[in-house]
Amino acid sequence: MRTVSESDLAKVSEAAELCGMPIDVLKMMAADGLLPQVVRGKAGHVYFPRSAIPTWTECVELLREQRDRHLRRAASALRRLDTELEAVRNDITEAREYPHQTLGIDLMSFGHWPHDRMASTLRGQPLITGVLEQFTTERIAITRYHDAYLDALASEGRQAREDTL
């Protein structure tokens, strides 16, 4: 694999100026692996090969796709939550119909959230807790990508430098 010389690399600020994308949005996209052409310097700084700086349009499309991916994951988590809540409803119905039987496991585990946050992300947690945690993670990602998408649209690529050579 050919190594890229320093003169072939652009700092993230220069790449942002060339493509018209806000610097913080490019940094986020690089950190999340959306821009595989990114090269990391020794101190972890982000550089772009000059020949592979994304266009404003490419960045906006990547942001839109990532936002949509997280929205789909959140919708999937809600469908799983609906299934789990139906199981709790069934346990409640059975407990009312058969008062002498043992209460259902879904009913008994619902609403039990460990006080120790680390314990809730390990083993033995109720499925509903895991689904709610997944939804929360996706909601945070949705918010990040929604804000980045709107910031990118607002920039309208107007910072992009015209190549006048």
TrEMBL record:
InterPro entries: DNA-bd_dom_put_sf. Residues 60-98 form a coiled coil. It comes from the Bacteria. Keywords: Coiled coil, Plasmid. This is DNA-binding protein.
